[in-house]
């Protein structure tokens, strides 16, 4: 028994402070929030798919949706009808298609599609 005690290193028992436990719990909560963020991304993609389906039905658009260019809205314009896209000043829009006349079909950052007059856009 005496030989075993010589070679055995005594380690103090570490007590975890209550504050540290609270911090550890809050870190775990943050990690859980990361997973919730991924769920909202999935919900957002579903919403974008719904908007795209609505766009194809409303505008009878059969072609592939490709971004021709991006434009910035110069002024805020509320929509007069469902087919028009309401824009705010400084908003980035993807131009999807050019239509005859003074309007283009655009998509905003929320995935909503609609007509926007060319005079309200700034193409760089």
UniProtKB/TrEMBL annotation:
Gene3D superfamilies: SH3 Domains
SUPFAM superfamilies: SH3-domain
Regions crossing the membrane: none
GO cellular component terms attached to this protein's record: membrane raft; plasma membrane
Source domain of life: Eukaryota
Domain Helically-extended SH3 positions: 55-121
UniProt cross-references to InterPro entries, sorted A to Z: FYB1/2-like, hSH3, SH3-like_dom_sf
Pfam families: hSH3
Record bears the keyword Nucleus: no
Subcellular compartments: Membrane raft
Swiss-Prot/TrEMBL keywords: Membrane, Phosphoprotein, SH3 domain
GO biological-process terms attached to the record: integrin-mediated signaling pathway; protein localization to plasma membrane; T cell receptor signaling pathway
Described function: Adapter protein that plays a role in T-cell receptor (TCR)-mediated activation of signaling pathways. Required for T-cell activation and integrin-mediated T-cell adhesion in response to TCR stimulation.
SUBUNIT field: Interacts with SKAP1, LCK and FYN. The phosphorylated form interacts with LCP2.
Name used for this protein in its record: FYN-binding protein 2
Lineage, uppermost ranks: Eukaryota, Metazoa, Chordata, Craniata, Vertebrata
